[in-house]
């Protein structure tokens, strides 16, 4: 009993040292506690009364997890050191359960107010979690017992359940804006595929989609998965997507992701012509102030929309288009696509871009003067096009023009014969060379 108390005192001291100022002390405390976890699992302090009972020291691991999640300081460096232990399937399973418990306790104590350091630490701990794809991949355990295959810790379904509960408990509380974006960036490929019920994220994603700005753009990825694979019905989805089109759309760093998803959402040939025309017209109007790298992507994007929806070609082939901007019937400020009168307008904006200072943009815009081929343009190479790459293309074009060898170029339409050699020259009538 005395030894047991001394061991507990030792664990308490090590837990306290995980909050030390020196990182080396924190690291040594963490590694020592994890060694204790391994040894306690092999040699349980409590006698096992029932055969088949799991002997993993959950309480000790919970002490470690609490030490990794301080409320008032960034622990990302110590958490990165802990990630090697997360490769063990049993450690990962009980860490997920401990994190869920920690979030509930901490947020209840602080009465739901945001805790930037704590929430960032939780995200740093749970975002790199590498979930197994199938049960046969779960073979790496810190401690294997004789009957480990029969235990819940060895079942993929149980891991997915713990993973889902952990993320739902984390996301139900208000997050700082920066953290909101980080979650949405990884949501579609690192979280949703490993949940037992991905549809439970509907509330979180619909709220995020309604916030606006970059957060709405990032929420599109997760919503696409739920709509496409889980039959989510989102009222006024295209109205909200239309409202996301503002001048910043050509400048944000998530531009490539947004246009990739917009391309997918507008790929259906069953969409009404007025809706697609509204998107084409709004993108064209915003293109007037867009940088060249964005224009080289959005013009083929618009061309693809014309290929999918031939009814919208009236925007290009309208013989009596507006002579000036004041006569354009399109209402840019209208939030409802059906009320924007886009189909009554014409694409004078693209015609303007045919006189763009950048030769590649002018060439791309001129494509609409000809009949479009049936094969769609591949946007994948254009989505990530940067200003530097566009500038490089300019230099290549300039060098090519400079190095081009010119043939005889006619400088005059009539060959000169002397100073007054031209026929009916006014100077020849009054002057002569003696």
Strand-helix topology:
Elements: H1 2-17, H2 23-42, H3 58-68, H4 76-82, H5 89-109, H6 116-126, H7 156-171, H8 177-191, H9 202-211, H10 213-230, H11 237-243, H12 255-265, H13 273-287, H14 292-308, H15 348-353, H16 359-365, H17 380-383, H18 387-403, H19 426-430
Helix pairs in contact: 1-2, 2-3, 2-4, 3-5, 5-7, 8-10, 9-10, 10-12, 13-14, 14-16
Sum this structure up briefly.
The chain is mainly alpha-helical and 434 residues long. The protein has 19 helices and no strands.
Globally, the shape reads elongated
Strand content: under 5%
How many H/I helices? 19
Number of strands: 0
What distance separates the N and C termini? 133 Å
Q: Which structural class do you get from the secondary structure elements?
A: mainly alpha
Biggest sheet features: none
User: Averaging pLDDT over every residue, what do you get?
Assistant: 83
How much helix, percentage-wise, in residues? 40-55%
Uncertain runs with pLDDT below 50, 5 residues or more? none
- What gyration radius follows from the Cα positions, in whole Å? 33 Å
> SSE order in H/E notation?
HHHHHHHHHHHHHHHHHHH
